[in-house]
Each structure stands twice: as C-alpha cells, then as structure tokens.
Amino acid sequence: MGGCARYWLDMKRKRVILGLFWGVATGLSVGVAEAELNPMMVVPGEVVYESDFSEDGAVSKEDWLSRQGTRWEISDGVLKGQPSSAEYQAAKSHHRGLEARTSVPKTPAEFLMTFSVRFLGGEETEIVPFVEFGHHVCRVKFGAETGTFMLADGETLKVAEAVEFTYEPGKWYRVMAELKGDEAVVQFEEGPVFYARHECFAKPNPSGGNGLGIAGPRGGKVEVDDVRIWVIEGGERDGWAEVRDGMPAFEPVATGKVKK
After folding, report:
1. Residues 6+ apart with CB under 8 A from 160
2. What is the pLDDT along the chain (260 residues), one digit of tens a residue?
3. Measured in Å, how far apart are the chain's first and last C-alpha atoms?
4. Which of 95, 191, 216, 240 is the most buried if burial means most Cβ atoms within 10 Å?
5. Hey, what's the torsion of the CAs at 173, 196, 103, 171, to 10 degrees?
6. Dihedral sign, CA of 133, 99, 61, 94?
7. 90-95, long-range: CB < 8 A, 24+ apart
8. Is the dihedral of CA 3, 5, 6, 9 positive or negative?
C-alpha cells in the first residue's frame, strides 16, 4: 500500500497518534485505523444510550425497534436477532423480515457511537448485511466478494469503499461512527476508515427506522454488543480540518438504484 500520512488528534486533552495509512490502490479511498478507535471529527457530549447486554431478557422497544416482524432478545451477554417467523413471512407480500433488522430510535440527529456486531449464517444479498445511520441515509454494506462500501442518499450513490475489506461470517466487527452536519466518518477497528460528505446526511429522515440500523444476512442471525451512543458538542475536534483536507478523493458512483 503506497502513501502514508500521520495526523495528530486531541483525545481527552492528550495528543495521541491516530496513524492513518492512506491507500492509493485502485478503488481504495479510505484509511486504515489502528487498534484503538478514537473520534476523528466530533467532540462527544452526554451519553444517551449504552448497554453491554449483561442481563438476559426481552428487548426494550424504547431502545431497540424490531423491524419487519423480526425477533430480538438479550441472551448470553449479547443482543441477538433472527428473521421473522415462517407464519409472519407467509402472511406478507413485502417487508417479510427475511433477515433480522433493528434500529435505535434514541440515536441523535448528530452523534458519536461505538458498537460491535457480527453476522451468523444465512446468505449475503445485494442489500444485506449492512449497518446504517438513518434509514436509507448513510449505509455501510458488507460484501464477501465486493469488499465493504458506504452508500448515501437512498443507496443511489457509492461514496467510499474498501475493496479488500471483505465480509467474514461469524467475525466480530468493532465500529465507531460519527455524523455531524453533512459529514460522516465510520471507522472499523483494525480496518478501514470511511469518510463522505453529502447533503442528505444533514436532512431530517422522513422514513421509519431512524438512527443506528442493522440488518443481517438473508435467513441468518445477528449479534450486537457493547453499544454506546453520545450526543455531540457544537465544535469539531481539534485537527479535523487537517485530517479532512488529507482525505483521498473519491468520486461518487451511481449505483443504478432509483431513490424512493
């Protein structure tokens, strides 16, 4: 991988090396994060939601919205999701819950969040598995063959990608996501850093399933752990302008999907 840029960011009033290595390989327009995830763009304020799912039981509907009749519960120290029942699927002509889907309505319009997720069994499709930030607003699609990429504006545009960061069933992914105004940053622990800027990120989301959203593979399961979500303070993090200016350019690519 060619090219290297090291940026200094303020974290808890201490200077720490983020150490971003920018790829110049074809189709790679992201950085590679070191093991510890630190905010790049925003300054966190109060925590609005956090859980390590240590107590087994039913899922609070105020915290986690089960979508399309899919089934979610807390057990073995994680949040577990599976598709809807066969009876539910037979009774529906669309939105049948063929893959586990959930969202977190407490997610602020602008936020910092961290979470761990893994996908078990089932099969990948052109749509799933994914994590998203606002329903159809900013989505990260996992692919076993195509790599992982970020989609915006109703999945009509690919705005960042990491073609060599391929999806592995059963693997835990630790994620940090930041959204402020029309900018979004998504970091993977020991993986890529996605950055994109699009006007849709700053607009109110008119559809359901707002906030952090997760969808598993078709017919498979999802596990989620160690979730924390913050509101953000007004200003941006020291050094962000320099980091932004050093981001490799990525020309958005139309996906061919028609926005609903």
Report:
1. 29, 30, 149, 150, 194, 195, 196, 250
2. 322 222 223 322 222 333 333 232 223 345 555 457 999 999 999 999 999 999 999 999 999 999 999 999 999 999 999 999 999 999 999 999 999 999 999 999 999 999 999 999 999 999 999 999 999 999 999 999 999 999 999 999 999 999 999 999 999 999 999 999 999 999 999 999 999 999 999 988 766 678 999 999 999 999 999 999 999 999 999 999 999 998 888 999 999 999 87
3. 39
4. 216
5. -10
6. positive
7. 95/68
8. negative
Helix (H, G, I), strand (E, B) or coil at 196: strand
Q: CB within 8 A of 200, min separation 6: which ones?
A: 137, 138, 152, 153, 154, 182
Collect all residues with Cβ–Cβ distance below 8 Å to 38 and sequence separation of at least 6.
9, 11, 16, 18, 176
Three-state secondary-structure class, residue 59: coil
d(CA 209, CA 101): 9
Does the pTM exceed 0.70? yes
